[in-house]
Structure formats: C-alpha cells, structure tokens
Design goal:
Length: 425
C-alpha cells in the first residue's frame, strides 16, 4: 500500500527564519512556471517525435519481417524511452498528466492478457480473470460473465481491455505492451538475457511461428498508433493554449511551486526509490523492474533522474540539440537560501552519479534484474546506493518546501520504504 508524506514548515522557529520572507519570491515565480511548462512541451514533443520514428520502424518490420527489421524496431523503442522518461517528473502534481499516464506507461503488466506465454507463467490468477486471456490468440474473451468481441483488433478493443475491471495489471496499451510484442517474455530470471521473441512471430504466411501472426501484427500496429495519438494529445496540453499549462497558471504561484515540488518529491521517494527500486530489492525479484522485457530498466531510472535535474535547474536539451531554459526553481530557492539551493543541487548530482554508476554496471557487468538477485552483494549495493541518494534528496526537498513558505504538500510514499515488513505480509 502506498502512503503519503506531508511536508511543511516544521516549527515556528523554522517558519520565522525561512518561510516568512519567501512569499515575495514565490509571488515572482511566473517566469519559473512558464519555463516549467515550456520544458514539459519540449519533452512531450520529443517523446511524440520518437514515437513516430518507432511507428515507422514497426511499419518497416511488418512490411518486411526479419531479424534486421526487428532489431531496428527494438532500437527505436529504446530510443523512444529516453525523452519520455524525462517527463515523469511532471506526472505527480499535474492532475491532467497523472490521470492520463496509465494509458502510455502502466506497469507491471500481465502479459498473458496480450499473447501466448511460457507454461511456467501459470494458467490462472486469483487477482486477474484475464491473466491468460491471450487476445492475440482468441477472438472472443469472457469477462464478468460478458463476452468481449475481439474478432478485430482495434483501438476501441484495446481501450476497452486496458485495466478492464479495475485490474491495473491488465495493461493493453502503451510502451510496455509494445515492448512485450517486440521482445517477448524475459525467461532468464536473474541470469543474463532479455526477451527473445523471434521475428517469425511477426511474419506473414508460412514463416509465422506460434500462430496468429496476423493478429499479433495488428495488435502491434494498433498499439503503436495509439501511443502516437496519446503523446500528440499530451503535447497539445502543454502548448500555449493547452489545458495543462492553463491549469498551472490558474492555480497561482504558490500552487504552481507546490506542483513542481510534488512532482520532484513523489518521483524521488515513493515511485522511484520505493515502488520501482526498493521493492524489487527487498523481494530480490527480477520481475520488479520497469522495462523488464528489454532489460532497459537502468536507462528508465537514469532518465527519470535527468528529468528531475532539468526541472529543478530549469533547462532541457532537446533531442535535436537545442536548449530550452529559463527561470528555475533553483533560482527561487537561491534567492531565499543560497546554501539550501547548493545542498539541493549537490543532492541531485549525487543521485545522478549513483544512477550513472548503476547504468554503467548494467551496460558492462550485469543487467538490472541481475543486480536485484539474492546473494548478489555487489549488485544489491549499487541499487541501494541509488535508493539512498533519492531518499536523501527527498529530505532536502522537504526543506525547500519550507524555505519557499509553501503550504503542506503530499507526495507518494511506499511500504517498501515506510513499512518494509508489510511487503512480506
């Protein structure tokens, strides 16, 4: 179960020394909010462009299936994750983003909903009636006593199936559905290796393996189109007249700063340090990784942190090399307490360095899922170091909230950090 933490000026003395003089700085934060929105627009537009390139590579794969075209599509998927993971710092605090995010980045997923799975996956789940529904292999699916017509794989069908019945593991759309269709299951546990789906699973005619290739191809093409459509919609929400940008402006300076800090705090603590990292380390479970089929989790985590740095310092380098920058949260904090701004910058850099070490290990020694393995003291330590740095920077975010004189904000918590024993109950 996730918990929330409330950050605020902790005492009258602290309020007098830090909070009292910060209102003016907060009231001058219009430029910070505008730059924050500009960076969001740039990140989502880069994500959209990368998704378009992914769709083109998927189209080429389906036009001429082969090992080379599958590899190109996989590379495009990996590239598409870089700008998108930068955006996750906008998820918490911005209701428009949080309400939408599950359509494109929901995880973990019960892949048996989508396609065939290894027998070791099992045949049923008490928590999910569609655990092995296999949409690719079945034109009719029963859920809750009702028949779902899956004879044609369309965006309407995938929308209906996505988190159907309130089961979050029924992920039918987004990056991870596409990832599964490109890589297949990772059956290596904590041994080396990622998903090994053959290109023949996406072949037409007699070269098809594991049956239903036409439906598998249709699913992949449909999911790719839907991802582009969703990213196009979100990019528009951050345009000059977009609803997300307008909501930020309508809330006023104090609410805007609280939004930024809610995003930083929630992603740092409950989401990344807790749900995505500490939980997997406690359980030593290789399935508790974000990009599990492609073994790309190290990059997902790293670029989450790069998004935090971009938001705090008010600058983002786009995929084409151009720079979006302007007044930043760091500027506001420095006006109020230069030492605190220096501490926050140091904390973020320490987290970046810890994630860079994790990323380097994943690329030269062992994959992230191997680092989680029980008995792997060296790998476990690298993961734990990154968790610790994220937790430490969250404590400094608490001080930033106080220094800017903001009302209490709520950030995501995680049992894996707040009550580890509950994880095993």
């Amino acid at each position: 179960m996730k918990r929330t933490m409330r950050f605020q000026c902790a005492s009258a003395a602290l309020a007098a020394s830090l909070c009292g003089g910060a209102v003016h700085a907060a009231m001058d934060s219009g430029g910070v909010m505008e730059n924050y929105a500009d960076i969001a627009h740039a990140m989502y537009e880069d994500s959209l462009n990368a998704a378009r390139e992914l769709d083109a590579r998927i189209g080429a794969l389906l036009e001429a299936p082969g090992a080379e075209s599958l590899s190109a599509a996989r590379s495009a998927w990996l590239n598409s994750r870089v700008p998108y993971m930068h955006t996750e710092v906008y998820r918490f605090g911005n209701a428009i983003v949080d309400d939408w995010e599950g359509k494109v980045n929901a995880w973990p997923l019960d892949e048996g909903l989508i396609d065939y799975v290894d027998p070791g996956y099992g045949t049923a789940s008490d928590e999910n009636p569609l655990y092995v529904a296999n949409v690719v292999g079945n034109e009719k699916i029963t859920f809750g006593g009702e028949m779902v017509d899956a004879s044609e794989i369309t965006s309407s069908l995938l929308t209906e199936l996505h988190e159907i019945g309130g089961v979050e593991a029924n992920v039918a759309t987004g990056y991870h559905a596409i990832e599964f269709l490109l890589w297949g299951q990772d059956l290596h546990g904590t041994d080396a290796g990622s998903g090994e789906r053959s290109w023949t699973d996406l072949a037409a005619g007699s070269e098809c393996t594991n049956g239903n290739c036409d439906r598998r191809r249709a699913y992949l093409a449909t999911a790719s189109t839907m991802l582009m459509d969703e990213l196009e919609w979100m990019t528009a929400q951050w345009a000059e007249d977009g609803a997300a940008r307008q909501a930020l402006a309508d809330g006023g300076p104090q609410a805007g700063l609280s939004t930024i800090l809610t995003g930083l705090g929630s992603l740092s603590y409950g989401e990344l340090a807790g749900e995505r990292m500490q939980l997997g380390l406690l359980l030593h479970d290789p399935e508790e990784e974000h990009d599990c089929f492609a073994d790309n989790t190290h990059n997902s985590h790293y670029y989450d942190v790069m998004g935090m740095l971009a938001v705090y310092h008010g600058g983002y380098t786009r995929t084409d090399g151009t720079r979006v920058s302007g007044p930043s949260l760091s500027d506001l904090v420095a006006e109020t307490d230069a030492a605190l701004d220096a501490e926050m910058s140091t904390r973020l850099t320490a987290t970046q360095n810890a994630m860079a070490s994790l990323k380097a290990r994943a690329e030269t020694v062992e994959a992230y899922d191997q680092m989680l393995g029980e008995g792997n003291a060296a790998g476990n330590a690298v993961v734990q170091a990154a968790i610790d740095r994220l937790t430490e920077q969250t404590r400094t975010i608490e001080q930033v909230v106080a220094a800017l004189g903001l009302e209490a904000i709520e950030v995501e918590g995680s049992d894996s950090l707040d009550d580890p024993e509950a994880v095993f109950e």
